[in-house]
Amino acid sequence: MEYTDKIVVNAAPRYEPAHKVRGARHVFSYTVTVTNNGYETVQLLRRHWFITDGIFAEREVEGEGVIGQQPTLEPGESFDYQSWCPVSEDYGSMRGYFTFQELRTRKMVQAEIETFLLMPEEALN
Question: pTM here?
Fold first, then answer.
């Protein structure tokens, strides 16, 4: 399967200090925007995240769609969703990819999600 640059994925994390999750030091929400800059209609079928907790701990999260949906994007369309991630260390990061199918050609492609940091604002000072 090949990576495509025709589907752009942007993620914007936000520290959520008021939210608590058992076993987590911090909780972050993140908004993901997926934009189809290609010429084919695509459907998001699967997600694959690599979540790093601190320096050494990494876990994978993989499954169908996002937030219970498998959205279809026409050329030029975007789809936004929001999710969250607990972090058990002082900071973390996320990266990954989404798997899409071009509906006309049935070709499978992947869109990369570049690494973004999960770090509370006070850690930046």
Answer: 0.92
